[in-house]
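Look over this one:
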Amino acid sequence: MTQLVNAKQMKACDQYTIDTIGIPSMVLMERAALAVFNELMEKEKYDLSQVLIVCGSGNNGGDGLAIARLLHLAGKNVTVYFVGNLTHRTTECQQQYAICDYYEIPILHHLETFLGFTLIIDSFLGIGANGELNETAKNVIDQINHSQLPILAVDVPSGIDASTGTSLGKFVHADTTVTFQFKKTGFTISPGLEACGNLQIVDVGISGDALKL
């Protein structure tokens, strides 16, 4: 039976893995990015000729930046559309941003059109998102949805409450969602259920021992 967790439980599992087991957060982020990278490279359904990764300032954005680097090093044309607040980046997101800078991966902070891209990776908002989204976030989600491009969501479609499945005002309609370690309760309830598209649950080494405490 598939283990279901809400956002609070998932965060507890993350922290237990980091604090009690001793696996650094950046290691978990690299594993998460590699899992998405493997999904992209192993499935022929993805056109990777011009990939756009939409990133926020949290760890979900950090995942996206790490994915960008892996694709870049594999010879793929990848562009990052960073719509998060630079001053509010998590430590891990800052590190991944700096690594992308080192590799001279294009990072845009404004993008009028998604024309010319072949795939969108939604790494904008993660499981920590809750409450009504601001207008900037809603506009970005509209851009993603109106692009008519295939969309792969990282961990959770942006704008979906991972615990309740409710919309935070606007949400990404993903074709595929690659979620980490456990299925989220919000993925069993509309509109979260439909927003995920084809749901892939991947093992990235996050312990479930915190759920037993």
Q: What stands out?
A: The first helix runs from residue 7 to 21. DSSP finds six helices and nine strands in the chain. Residues 76 and 188 are 34 Å apart (CA to CA). The chain has a mean pLDDT of 96.
